[in-house]
Amino acid sequence: MNRPVVRPADRSRFDALIDARSPAEFALDHIPGAINCPVLDDEERRIVGTLYKQTGAFEARRIGGAMVAANLARHLQGPFAEHPASWKPLVYCWRGGLRSGSMVTWMRMVGWDAQQLAGGYKAFRRHVLDQLQSLCGRLRLVIVCGATGSAKTRVLHALADQGAQVLDLEFFASHKGSLLGQLPGQPQPSQKRFETLIATTLESFDPARPVYVEGESPRIGRLNLPLELVASMRAAPCVEVQASDAARLAYLLEDYAYLGDDPQQLADRLGLLKEMQGKENVARWQAWAHTRDLAPLFAELMALHYDPHYDKSQSRHFARWAERRPLAADDLSPDAVARIATRVLALEAD
């Protein structure tokens, strides 16, 4: 029976997405919502690859086939065991070849209407890049700006709570976007994973409605924003949260309190500023880091490091910075942030 070719855009028609690649491949990037049920784990894949190079395809397939059979049996007895006959999974591997093909064959023998993603993950990767190119230019972006400590990320969360469409780039990047923005115990994802999260979120948006995004530079930690998104952000209108220095300092002390848990790591990061801020300033900041005295540290970082470069950097990144709409704020508590979000939405309604 000829089955229809399944493309990445068709994936929502299935009950489950099964990634048959190895755990390492899955960790690098995968289709959102997929579960990893490898037909070969990382070590088995290495062994089969080595056999293929050293002894040829037959021996590699003979040894690999036994491994695949054992893993398929484990999946059939484990994560697949409770699914009814009507279950309809979509399976993919790297290129839509033997790994996903073998799993689909056994699933169909059981009686499930399993299908294989044409082109595998590589086809999905092309889909992600195509979506970034086609969707970014159609977005009605609104950039939420503000000096460091203006609670921009919490404003985005409040906007989402109030029903707005929000693109939370720092969440996808697992990084707060500043010198001290690395999150404890949370490594950043791969560049491919970052782009996948952005593209699949954009797919869910209504292009007729605004999308709120924090004013970011083209780089968050070690990750680069897609060029198409950077271009759209640069041309978008801006809203600026103009929080008082006192409110910003209070917010930073709460939001970055965890930096006091590892004084040496904080001091090491501050050391990166020596060339820009001078040895004397940085030595003073490192001393405060070692004593966990974050209030004067953050106050001076605001005054000497972040604020002097803020306006120039915003005007460089956003072409419509001069016509930004300001929102004054003396309070960045949760209730106050919710009110800021309401004011942001009111600006778009005017």
List keywords for this structure.
five-stranded parallel β-sheet; alpha/beta; 15 helices; Oxidized Rhodanese, domain 1; single chain; 2 domains; Rossmann fold; 350 residues
Task: Please describe what this structure looks like.
This protein is 52% helix and 12% strand. It has 350 residues and is α/β, with parallel strands linked by helices. It folds into two domains: 8-127, Oxidized Rhodanese, domain 1, CATH 3.40.250.10; 139-349, Rossmann fold, CATH 3.40.50. Strand 8 (219-220) and strand 9 form a beta hairpin. The longest helix is centred in the C-terminal third of the chain and has 24 residues, at 294-317. The chain is globular and about 65 Å long. The N and C termini lie far apart (58 Å).
Fold topology:
Layout lengths: L15 E4 L3 H6 L6 E2 L5 H14 L1 H21 L11 E4 L5 H13 L4 E2 L3 H16 L4 E6 L6 H10 L3 E3 L1 H5 L17 H13 L6 E5 L4 E2 L2 E2 L2 H9 L2 E6 L1 H11 L7 H8 L3 H4 L1 H12 L3 H24 L7 E5 L4 H16 L1
Parallel strand pairs: 1-2, 1-3, 3-4, 5-7, 5-10, 6-7, 10-11
Antiparallel strand pairs: 8-9
CATH topology of the largest domain: Rossmann fold
Low-confidence stretches: none
What is the N-to-C succession of helices and strands?
Answer: EHEHHEHEHEHEHHEEEHEHHHHHEH
Number of helices: 15
Integer tally of domains: 2
Residue share in β-strands: 5-15%
CATH architecture of the largest domain: 3-Layer(aba) Sandwich
Number of strands: 11
**Shape, per Cα inertia axes:** globular
Radius of gyration equals: 25 Å
Helix content: 40-55%
Would you tell me the overall average pLDDT? 95
